[in-house]
UniProtKB/TrEMBL annotation, chains A, B:
Transmembrane segment boundaries: 123-144, 172-193, 223-241, 284-307, 319-341, 371-395, 484-503, 509-531, 543-567, 573-594
Gene name linked to the record: CLCN7
Location of the CBS domain: 738-827
Protein family (similarity comment): Belongs to the chloride channel (TC 2.A.49) family.
Protein name in UniProt: Chloride channel protein
Length: 833, 833
């Protein structure tokens, strides 16, 4: 069953080479629940290791009751899925540098000039990110344009041929088969090679920027599959766009370049080694995402805002400016290359993959009276968007339950492709909306049953790449479309797009949303012009734009960044105010019903996503209630065997361990000395950094930061490290490697306070300490362990207890599990799925 | 001398009603240095209070040596000013809520629905901020337009009269007198009523958003003086703009509305009481600043980015969206009102106080070949900007030393006004550049010695409000200006603007910078067109725009926000890329020589401004070296007399006190229990919240959060609170009012780590604790104080020492004093000035 679960989740495949060297995540919990079963992640079983914290009976009982009720729910062919779950399988990124001695020594060695070099390198990387992202976008655009052109020409010729002599069903068959086979290839590579490349990638990148490590999301393989997949989906005629995936592509490019090596290709260029840690990598990924938005929509400022809205918890002027630089370079590269490709080398007229075309502000300004109308359109967009999301929600639940085998997923994708072609064909066939071909900008005018010199107007919408259809809806002169055509098109495309989103293909939802919105917006404009007997408001293109904004806002619920993206895509700031109004209304109305599409999918994957603030009503919770306890701690000088056992303990899989100075016989009190990560311990064990117990005075082997960087980010699993029985008895001194000043909170701190600290600093582990506990600070010092009792200044026979006592640990999942539901604060259950 | 110092600094006046109830800041330090003298702020004298921390001899010696060398430098008529000083007189804002019991009880009482009401109130406030800011901008614009129109008509009639019959010196006299008298009034009100209203207010708002409390900066009186002052400066013909001050005005409006009361007018509307704390107020001030930018330049997105760049350390999506809403409302209000005022009610054509006019992207696109030229212009802008700043730096130093009396300041302002008029007149008089009046857009064409039907081209630049001159330079057709005219104008205006910035008048530097840049940019464009023999690049308007961007960027060094402001002001995204390149180049080149104008002025005022990151090479410093020590601590149950004495202690003026549980006889160890602020103690004393020592079991009077809010932000000084001798012997229980979970750092944490925590969370006090100190945790428990020794579980006669030991305190000044200078890390001295 766990294997089945793999295929539907973003991170399902290849758990064995999980980036943090953690294996055995699928191993059953010691308390007997199988993998994939829901249950509390708190550790319940007694263990031989130093575990610190309260273990109240109440907790135990509750947890056990919970487990008992969860287990019987499982049925063989259905994956138990509950939206009130939080998955334990996602790791967190660490935005907090581990300031251990090695790190500080390096930083202190670096002088001012060297820091300037580092800064210059950052700029160079950003420029490279921009250039490469732009080039990838160009590649996608050019290939799609040629392949789609080829396909439409073939089908058009066929239709033209069969229109004359009858037998259009052959044309339908040809069209459907072409689409289905292209989509099949696109779906196959995604389903079998890299499932994380499915969809637009925006939810995944949102998670990454939020600090959740989605396995494989920034790998080279993912990029290749994504690019091929998106080309095939668009060429396959699905109701999808190629814009969303650019964000993902940009991020992968950024992650790759900034590390100066490719783990997949096993090439290390030995450059940019300084940037091999989560902090730096995440900054570059932000830049990559921004460059992607910028290339997709020609919206560099929008790209920066997207990255900031989604990611950077800590706004930093330099970082922002670098991100903006990458964005600008990206759109500029795309613009230059496409201009050359289109033969007008110097005019720079294609800033993005989609351009909304030039809205002439003089002809198409708006007046104050129109503002209520725009707000009304926002309401409509919000409702339609919520409907879209609700439908997609049910569909996704269905898919999670029943369509989890890759082959089924491929079949579904082919089905959708064939149905899309069929619907398009039938609509075109049934449409009697003919328009004069003269002066129109249609790329592949289908004459069908129209008179000579005319073309079928429905075909401009269906028989075209969606980007072109959007631009046509914005700019075709009034009268180009008949209201009936637009109405039918909206209806059909709405359901098609809804069905398509979530298929196992690489594709985005931006363009279909814009297209739906533009269609009903234009329809709305035409009706309005009809109602007001053709007053000055009549330009339907303007209403198409507002409808597109409303629909997109109603579906994705982005705010400032989307406003700016729309503004930049129109190339005109005049519409800023109405677009903002429309988006704001759509968001408010939509949020009333159901959340945004991306957030919905993130939640369906049970990702521990941290929102901006703790739930407003959570002041009643304190760190004590939120934290995980007991905590597995390590002593400052620890036995190697203990370390190995703790790391191999599949029941816990903790990634950070407080280092304490404690009386080994009194596990209830321990003074915090630092924090060490699983990955650091792995590297220490791998390099055999330890000394024999008898020779504690010997200096243990020194490591360099480079050793840690070389292992980043795919640290080997503990199982791959052989430790002999003799070595197990050695001692390892962690002082030099642990972070001696981890952030801490007292256990009385409220949840919002803990949340704020955690979120603002991008932490992964937050140690909860007790500074109020009145237990005895003097305990018996056993003579045998005298070496571990430094400076006994207590009365004879007593051992001084350190001052900061570890009582628990807060990690991402402990904070993400509290959510504001309809009935107030609700707590998600933790599950291994 | 201290009185003299008052006048030149932003916060100089009315120290007696400083917002935090702190008096006696001008009282001499106990160690004998006079006020105004530089010296270390660390407390050196022994004191009767509970002071905790190390006091090393090394520190003492160093500090004393420093003091000895500083003292003799003072001379009677010169204010000793050293740019390597950090003033101790600025308070910090507190972005961290004091989560005491009262606060938590209130938050827990508020349910979900009530939180929604709070959220709606926030939106209403933002809308009001936008509307009022827009209206104030309209008011300024309309009044300036009418008064300036009147002035120019009078002068023009006079010139026209005297051109015919000779005696133009009378016209010059009239012009100069008119200007000087108008400026005199503007300068008088600023110098004598509210000096903080001087200048653009941008540095002050930057400081406020950064977390520094500049006294009076967000008061109603300041707003009134600012608005009147800026009108008078612009009408007085100074080389200033009215845009910068809008940012300050918007901030004051926001601060006023969000508090639901005016302390100056003594009116409390009893609304928005929830928002009466620094955290909320600062968010609204961000919105106000953004609304100001938006109204000034018609740049709502630019406004949001400005606020974010300068202020919000923690990016929050909801906050950003609200700020954007306020910005949009602001530009929309301005647009509507001005459209109605100009008679074309519905066309919404004036989004900002300055609009760069419509750049037609078709006619004025750019090609790739032009990009190196733009970069070159950026270099020129950077150099000219650095020159401007360097000149202004010397001028400001001169002003701080010699022109510190208000009357001298008024005289200087009048002098500048008269000189500006004279220079303008002489330039116009000497110019022989005549242009045909037909088809030009000049508002007040001066014929002077030109032929009939022609006008003096120099007069369009000088005989006009600067906003109009800028737009003329952008859009006048090629050939409207003769290169000689532009060159002379640039030269003269450069020095005039440089002299003007820093005068005691309300005025901004944006427009003069743009004007200088537009002039040399246009000159550059003309030369280029001449050199290339009139190729397609010839449009000088485009080069004027780039020159304007380069010059402004070279002076103020803003990054993303300025790019977006320029983009929005041109109403066109086409120029985004070149503008970014130009601004980036200008910033890099400028930063090489000298820092930005605003930062320079902030530094000249010795404000403890926190930059984005700690200096890169500061990893060698730890919290131990950075912190202030010893710390004055309070016991959880403290004698009232001690509290009063500590608050009245003019040698320390601390604002936050760690609350400890300690053995009163052993001041070297104390366990942290919480943190309490001076303002909270003041309110407690005012409401007599204490019980007699004999009746410690009695419940002391309960306070509500409202009592604290009513006193916010102008807490009374301790001197105004009478505490009788009997009351001094009472005890005060702080448990309920202190923040029980203040943020702490261990003393080994590196400076960058401390900085990051402090900056990201917007803290005011950060307690440094020792979790490694190996002193004895068991000390003698004196029988007399048995009540203060709870749960003695130590061996008989010993008292358990608490676990978290306070060793120091880090506040803003401790972090701001480390700076990256030319020769590496440098440390600023602290001074009372």
């Amino acid at each position: 069953m766990a294997n089945v679960a793999k295929k539907v989740s973003w991170s399902g495949r290849d758990r064995d080479d999980d980036e943090d060297g953690r294996a055995g995540e699928t191993t059953p919990l010691l308390n007997g629940t199988g993998p994939g079963a829901a249950g509390s992640g708190r550790q319940l079983t007694p263990s031989p290791f130093l575990r610190i914290g309260q273990l109240s009976n109440v907790d135990l009982n509750e947890d056990i009751r919970e487990l008992e009720t969860e287990v019987p729910r499982q049925r063989p062919n259905e994956i138990p899925h509950n939206e009130k779950l939080l998955s334990l399988k996602y790791e967190s990124l660490d935005y907090d540098n581990s300031e251990n001695q090695l790190f500080l020594e390096e930083e202190r060695r670096i002088n001012h000039a060297a820091f300037r070099t580092v800064e210059i390198k950052r700029w160079v990387i950003c420029a490279m990110i921009g250039i490469l992202t732009g080039l990838v976008a160009c590649f996608i655009d050019i290939v799609v344009e040629n392949l789609a052109g080829l396909k439409y020409r073939v089908v058009k010729d066929n239709i033209d041929k069969f229109t004359a002599k009858g037998g259009l069903s052959f044309s339908l068959l040809l069209w459907a088969t072409l689409n289905a086979s292209v989509v099949m290839v696109g779906s196959l590579i995604v389903a079998f090679i890299e499932p994380v490349a499915a969809g637009s990638g925006i939810p995944q990148i949102k998670c990454y920027l939020n600090g959740v490590k989605i396995p494989h999301v920034v790998r080279l393989k993912t990029l290749v599959i994504k690019v091929c997949g998106v080309i095939l989906s668009v060429v396959g005629g699905l109701a999808v766009g190629k814009e969303g995936p650019m964000i993902h592509s940009g991020s992968v490019i950024a992650a790759g370049i900034s590390q100066g090596r490719s783990t997949s290709l096993k090439r290390d260029f030995k450059i940019f080694e300084y940037f091999r840690r989560d902090t730096e990598k995440r900054d570059f990924v932000s830049a990559g995402a921004a460059a992607g938005v910028s290339a997709a929509f020609g919206a560099p400022v929008g790209g920066v805002l997207f990255s900031l809205e989604e990611g950077a918890s800590f706004w930093n002027q330099f970082l922002t400016w670098r991100i903006f630089f990458a964005s600008m370079i990206s759109t500029f590269t795309l613009n230059s290359v496409l201009s050359v490709y289109h033969g007008n080398a110097w005019d720079l007229s294609s800033p993005g993959l989609i351009n909304f075309g030039r809205f002439d502000s003089e002809k198409m300004g708006y007046t104050i009276q129109e503002i209520p109308i725009f707000i009304f359109m926002g309401v409509v967009g919000g409702i339609l968007g919520a409907l879209f999301n609700a439908l997609n929600y049910w569909l996704t639940m269905f898919r999670i339950r029943y369509i989890h085998r890759p082959c089924l997923q491929v079949v579904e994708a082919m089905l959708v492709a064939a149905v899309t072609a069929t619907v398009g064909f039938v609509m075109i066939y049934c449409s009697r909306d003919c328009q004069p071909i003269q002066g129109s900008s249609v790329a592949y005018p289908l004459q069908l049953f129209c008179a000579d010199g005319e073309y079928n107007s429905m075909a401009t919408a269906f028989f075209n790449t969606p980007e072109k259809s959007v631009v046509n809806l914005f700019h075709d002169p009034p009268g180009s479309y008949n209201p009936m055509t637009l109405g039918m098109f909206t209806l059909m495309y709405f359901f098609l797009a809804c069905w398509t989103y979530g298929l196992t293909v690489s594709a985005g939802v931006f363009i279909p949303s814009l297209l739906i919105g533009a269609a009903w917006g234009r329809l709305f404009g035409i009706s309005l012009s009809y109602l007001t007997k053709g007053s000055i408001w009549a330009d339907p293109g303007k209403y198409a734009l507002m409808g597109a904004a409303a629909q997109l806002g109603g579906i994705v619920r982005m705010t400032l960044s989307l406003t700016v993206i729309m503004m930049e895509a129109t190339g005109n700031v005049t519409y800023g105010f109405p677009i903002m109004l429309v988006l704001m209304t759509a968001k408010i109305v939509g949020d009333y019903f159901v959340e945004g599409l991306y957030d919905m999918h993130i939640q369906l994957q049970s990702v521990p996503f941290l929102h901006w603030e703790a739930p407003v009503t959570s002041h009643s919770l304190t760190a004590r209630e939120v934290m995980s306890t007991p905590v597995t701690c390590l002593r400052r000088i620890e036995r190697v065997g203990t370390v190995v056992d703790i790391l191999s303990d599949t029941s816990s899989n903790h990634n950070g361990f407080p280092v304490v100075e404690s009386n080994p016989d009194t596990t209830q009190v321990a003074g915090l000395r630092g924090l060490i990560l699983r990955s650091q311990l792995i590297v220490l064990l791998k390099h055999k950094v330890f000394v024999e117990r008898a020779n504690l005075s010997l200096v243990q082997r020194r490591l360099k930061l480079k050793d840690f960087r070389d292992a980043y980010p795919r640290f080997p699993p503990i199982q791959s490290i052989h430790v002999s029985q003799d070595e197990r008895e050695c001692m390892i001194d962690l002082s030099e490697f642990m972070n001696p000043s981890p952030y801490t909170v007292p256990q009385e701190a409220s949840l919002p306070r803990v949340f704020k600290l955690f979120r603002a600093l991008g932490l992964r582990h937050l140690v909860v300490v007790d500074n109020r506990n009145e237990v005895s600070p003097c305990s018996l010092c056993p003579g045998a362990r005298a070496t571990l009792c430094p400076g006994s200044v207590c009365p004879h026979g007593l051992y001084p207890v350190p001052f900061l006592q570890v009582v628990g640990m807060v990690t991402r999942k402990d904070l993400a599990r509290y959510r504001l539901g309809k009935e107030g604060l609700e707590e998600l259950s933790l599950a291994q799925t």
